[in-house]
Amino acid sequence: MHHDSTTLTHLDAEGRANMVDVSDKQPSDREAQAQAWVRMRPATLQMIQQNGHPKGDVFAVARIAGIMAAKKTHELIPLCHPLMLSSIHLELKAVEPDSVRIVASCRLNGRTGVELEALTAASVAALTIYDMCKAVDRGMVIDSIQLLKKQGGRSGAFDAGVTA
């Protein structure tokens, strides 16, 4: 069960943004899963599925981009802590007739959660698909970027109720 907090943890008493001090927290196992969808023309999806893209395997490149992005989340999101992720996993699935679903999972044993890392991995994998396929389909839409679930830490578990 998850309960939203009524306070913004990144703001100090004067309302200024600061990185949260996690030094007093005990390390614990933490895991998060996020998704992103890329909607496209059916012909674009077919090209991806048939490995017909001249730049190579779209899913393989997007998967590696997502992994790299998760590791660099703290460089992109100003108040994120640098983390030693123990696992990053991306699943990319063609969903007929015109979509790709990306599910990113991140794990660690540490003092802060990995939600942003999972969200960043899914988002950058989706952007990579767009980048690789934009020459044939500029009308692609990236949507439904969301946290699916998280566990560990003081705030407890969260489950969006979306099947991965």
From TrEMBL:
<comment type="function">
    <text>Catalyzes the conversion of (8S)-3',8-cyclo-7,8-dihydroguanosine 5'-triphosphate to cyclic pyranopterin monophosphate (cPMP).</text>
</comment>
<dbReference type="GO" id="GO:0061799">
    <property type="term" value="F:cyclic pyranopterin monophosphate synthase activity"/>
</dbReference>
<dbReference type="InterPro" id="IPR047594">
    <property type="entry name" value="MoaC_bact/euk"/>
</dbReference>
<feature type="domain" description="Molybdopterin cofactor biosynthesis C (MoaC)">
    <location>
        <begin position="19"/>
        <end position="153"/>
    </location>
</feature>
<feature type="region of interest" description="Disordered">
    <location>
        <begin position="1"/>
        <end position="28"/>
    </location>
</feature>
<dbReference type="InterPro" id="IPR036522">
    <property type="entry name" value="MoaC_sf"/>
</dbReference>
<dbReference type="Pfam" id="PF01967">
    <property type="entry name" value="MoaC"/>
</dbReference>
<comment type="subunit">
    <text>Homohexamer; trimer of dimers.</text>
</comment>
<feature type="active site">
    <location>
        <position position="131"/>
    </location>
</feature>
<dbReference type="GO" id="GO:0006777">
    <property type="term" value="P:Mo-molybdopterin cofactor biosynthetic process"/>
</dbReference>
<dbReference type="InterPro" id="IPR023045">
    <property type="entry name" value="MoaC"/>
</dbReference>
<keyword id="KW-0501">Molybdenum cofactor biosynthesis</keyword>
<feature type="compositionally biased region" description="Basic and acidic residues">
    <location>
        <begin position="1"/>
        <end position="15"/>
    </location>
</feature>
<dbReference type="InterPro" id="IPR002820">
    <property type="entry name" value="Mopterin_CF_biosynth-C_dom"/>
</dbReference>
<feature type="binding site">
    <location>
        <begin position="79"/>
        <end position="81"/>
    </location>
    <ligand>
        <name>substrate</name>
    </ligand>
</feature>
<protein>
    <recommendedName>
        <fullName>Cyclic pyranopterin monophosphate synthase</fullName>
        <ecNumber>4.6.1.17</ecNumber>
    </recommendedName>
</protein>
<dbReference type="InterPro" id="IPR050105">
    <property type="entry name" value="MoCo_biosynth_MoaA/MoaC"/>
</dbReference>
<comment type="pathway">
    <text>Cofactor biosynthesis; molybdopterin biosynthesis.</text>
</comment>
<comment type="similarity">
    <text>Belongs to the MoaC family.</text>
</comment>
<keyword id="KW-0456">Lyase</keyword>
